[in-house]
Design goal:
The complex is a heterodimer of chains A (328) and B (338).
Chain A (H helix, E strand, L loop, with lengths): L1 H8 L9 H11 L5 E4 L5 E5 L8 E7 L4 E7 L5 E6 L4 H4 L2 E4 L5 E6 L13 E4 L5 H7 L5 E4 L4 E3 L3 E4 L2 H16 L6 E7 L7 H10 L3 E8 L18 E6 L7 H14 L3 E5 L6 H6 L6 E8 L8 E4 H15 L1
Parallel strand pairs in A: 3-12, 3-13, 13-16, 14-15
Antiparallel strand pairs in A: 1-2, 2-12, 4-5, 4-9, 5-8, 6-7, 6-9, 7-8, 10-11, 11-17, 14-16
Chain B lengths: L2 H6 L8 H15 L4 E3 L5 E5 L8 E7 L4 E7 L5 E6 L11 E4 L6 E6 L8 H4 L9 E3 L5 H7 L5 E4 L4 E3 L3 E4 L2 H13 L7 E7 L7 H10 L3 E9 L19 E3 L10 H14 L3 E3 L9 H6 L5 E9 L7 E4 H15 L2
Parallel strand pairs in B: 3-12, 3-13, 13-16, 14-15
Antiparallel strand pairs in B: 1-2, 2-12, 4-5, 4-9, 6-7, 6-9, 7-8, 10-11, 11-17, 14-16
Classes of the chains: A alpha+beta (328), B alpha+beta (338).
């Protein structure tokens, strides 16, 4: 699993710029599903038809996009001024290594601020080693997006850190599930969605096109097991988290029950998750057309939206077995 | 229609009727009644077919509504309490002249506040919020105020349309009558797309009209013609100017409502370059527009916003450059013929 996670996590794919991730996933799944399409929002939609013509349509959604910094202006001296794409935390960004889709590397730096001033994005700039604006604009264009540079590594026996773990861990999980999934009664749509980090925008159009009976988002969630962090109460290594509620959706009780039952059937550990913030593709799916029953299976993750997002492989394994049991 | 005529029509969000009817009539005149509809939200949707039956569906959107105020109650002494419709900076309100209501019966008024003589030193440090302001229409008491300006009456700023300086225009509702003006010009042009013009309503309160319009039209591509904030006046570092008056139409890679698909953004830059249309990339992520709903209604569409830079946007006196307005028109015209 680590090899697959690293392969997917290392691909460039900022929010709104997910096509390289979609290409990588398409190559891995093209022989495993019945059809693969992309829509105007860039969602990769993989369909595996069920054996029962009257079966349900189940949409699983894992987002490909990764928060980043969009180049909004270039200064005479060649420094790039940026705006956030998604929930960038300025405090996590200072002096981080970043990269662009075309391979240009940079360092994001916070300019000095007054003692009583809180650093915000307008105080940040990216140094790409350009001498002036002309050279900078020969390397990147306005509208290009930098992300934290790939850096996927193991931490102890079970844990893995990477900048894009949110949500490439779920992409890897969904790829693995689709590779192992045998015949099913229901039709399964594995959606690798776009622009989740700016408001679940891709999942909205994907869900409209698919018109599913059930939608399940696969995403990371916060943790409650590091110093001074108590909510949500999920812990790394304690199993797949089944979301009851977050700021974007209240999971449908029947989906929660079915997921928990599938976990039991598969003999894996699960944790009930109540997240007092955040949202997943489930919120976009739930309110599409005349409404969709939804749930979310989460992988607990430390330091979300940093350059070192940490997950536990045992939780990924639990989620994989849970989902296979649910779909079969 | 002349830009002056369009700008002088009153039409705050949800009360766009005068603008709607003028636009509807011009669309009917140019495209025929069978190709123009007004939907339930009050959007004007005008359809211009092209020869190719398999052409992509293109939605061109500009919003009819402008920011303004609305009457919410009257005080015992006949002053109107008001709320803002759309995003208005409270700092620009005090002592501005307004028109209360539309048409021949519109009343003159002024936005009043506590006299400076009565303000304490502490008062003067703060911007008076809209709750502490009122509109004075000279009414003698509550009963008179309520009878001539009942709750829900729309209020617009009273700003004469003025041409001045180097190709500049100063007016009230440039955001987004500039987009409407460009769209009306485009009605006459040849197009290689199955083209739908959507003059939308209620953009300033959350792009509410565009949802229904996009659902009806089901576009493959959406172009949003806007007026957008320019911050180029005064002592502003170059990288914080957003866009600059006179430098051409501003092409957006992203705003708070949508991220232009990269291929769409690149196409618009290429079309501008090929056609020699003055253009600039909007250098900031600010605002939001109908591109959000258009991009994500039904199965989605590719979108990009093309804007005329406007100084002092959402204030009583917005300023833009007529050459940028021309550039907006020329860019879309070139795109239609691609």
């Amino acid at each position: 699993m680590f090899e697959l996670i690293k392969k997917i996590a290392d691909v460039y794919g900022a929010t709104g710029r997910e096509s390289a991730v979609a290409d990588t996933i398409e190559a891995l799944l093209k022989d495993k599903v019945d059809s693969i399409t992309r829509d105007a929002m860039g969602n990769l939609i993989c369909e595996k038809r069920g054996t029962d013509p009257g079966g349900k349509r189940i949409m699983l959604s894992a987002h490909m996009d990764h928060i980043g910094f969009i180049v909004a202006a270039v200064e005479k001296e060649g420094f790039l001024r940026v705006a956030p794409v998604g929930g960038i935390r300025v405090a996590y960004s200072h002096t981080r290594h970043v990269c662009f889709a075309n391979g240009v590397q940079g360092v994001i730096v916070q300019e000095p601020v007054a003692d009583n001033e809180k650093p915000v994005m307008k105080h940040m700039f990216i140094d790409i080693g350009a001498a002036d604006a002309e050279e900078a604009l020969s390397m990147v264009q306005l509208g290009d997006i930098a992300v934290y540079a790939p850096d996927c590594f193991r931490l102890g026996e079970y844990r893995v850190a990477a900048p894009a773990m949110d949500d490439r861990i779920a992409c890897a999980l969904l790829i693995s599930v689709m590779q192992q999934l045998g015949e099913t009664k229901d039709t399964v749509y594995a959606v690798f969605s776009t622009q989740e980090e700016v408001g679940c925008r891709g999942a909205k159009t994907a869900a409209y096109g698919i018109n599913p009976d059930v939608g399940i988002a696969l995403d990371v969630t916060g943790n409650g097991d590091t110093p001074k962090t108590k909510l949500p109460s999920v812990k790394l290594g304690d199993g797949a988290a089944v979301k009851i509620m977050d700021n974007g959706s209240i999971s449908s009780p029947e989906v929660v029950s079915a997921l928990l039952a599938a976990g039991e059937k598969a003999g894996v550990k699960t944790q009930r998750e109540v997240l007092p913030y955040g949202g997943t593709d489930a919120m976009a799916m739930q309110t599409t057309r005349s409404g969709v029953r939804v749930g979310t299976v989460s992988i607990p993750c430390r330091y979300v939206h940093s350059a070192c997002e940490v997950i536990d492989l045992r939780d990924v394994d639990a989620a994989e077995k849970l989902l296979l049991a649910y779909l079969q | 229609m002349e830009l002056k005529t369009l700008c002088e029509l009153p039409g705050i969000s949800g009360r766009e009727e005068p603008v709607r009817m003028a636009i509807y009539n011009e669309c009917v005149e140019k495209l025929g009644k069978e190709n123009v509809t007004i939907d339930r939200m009050g959007n004007v949707i005008a359809h211009k077919k092209c020869a190719d039956e398999n052409a992509k569906r293109l939605m061109i959107a500009g919003h009819m509504d402008e920011v303004g105020l609305m009457v919410i109650s009257a005080t015992e002494d006949g002053l109107l309490k008001v709320c803002a419709i759309g995003g208005i900076d409270s700092r620009v309100l005090v002592s501005k002249r307004v028109k209360v209501g539309y048409g021949e019966n519109a009343l003159s008024g002024v936005i009043g506040a506590m006299a400076i003589h009565q303000q304490t030193a502490e008062d003067r440090k703060h911007v008076l919020p809209i709750e502490q302001l009122y509109v004075d229409i000279g009414a003698k008491d509550k009963a008179e105020a309520e009878s001539v300006a009942p709750v829900g009456t729309p209020i617009i700023f009273e700003t004469p349309f003025t041409l001045f300086g180097d190709h500049k225009v100063l007016a009230r509702s440039l955001d987004d009558r500039v987009g409407c003006y460009t769209m009306l010009r485009l009605l006459d042009d040849e197009t290689n797309y199955d083209t739908w013009f959507a003059f939308t309503c209620q953009e300033e309160v959350g792009c509410r009209g565009a949802y229904g319009a996009a659902f009806r039209i089901q576009p493959d591509i959406g172009l949003v013609l806007e007026g957008t904030a320019s911050n180029d006046a005064g002592d502003i570092p170059e990288h914080e100017q957003i866009c600059v008056l006179g430098k051409g139409v501003a092409i957006s890679f992203m705003d708070h409502a949508s991220i232009a698909q990269p291929e769409m953004f690149k196409t618009m830059l290429a079309v501008a370059q090929e056609a020699g249309v003055p253009h600039q990339v909007k250098m900031a992520v600010t605002g939001g527009n109908d591109g959000g709903p258009i991009q994500r209604t039904r199965i989605g569409a590719q979108t990009c916003a093309l804007s005329v830079p406007c100084r002092y946007i959402h204030s009583p006196s917005t300023v833009c450059d007529l050459r940028d307005l021309d550039a907006q028109y020329e860019l879309v015209k070139a795109f239609l013929q691609k």
